[in-house]
Target: Transmembrane protein 97
Amino acid sequence: MAAPTRLLEWLFALYFLSHIPITLMIDLQPLLPAAGLYPESVKLLQWYAVTFRDPMMMQPPEWFKSFIFCEAFLQLPFFPVAAYAFLKGWYKSGRATCHRQHFCRTFAFCIAIKVYPAI
Model:
């Protein structure tokens, strides 16, 4: 039983580690001034928005920017901590309550916008 649990912990660590560059290169772009971005970064965001049909990332409404700020200041610092905790086997589910709440709230709003686009 310990081997499958340990494998799952490594997979979660990989998940959190992979979200660090994704957050830095794609998710935080709408908060940064366009003049300070590399052209490759802008192309990456455009590719992402077209490929995954995510127009809110190209011109996010103000309410969506508040979620991006939360991602920058709550989730991004949490990613390396969570990855390290999973790798060391220290992770306890109760310690990630803030991350889970923010994720669920963001997910619920995004689904609501897809289901009810007139909102």
Summary: DSSP finds four helices and no strands in the chain.
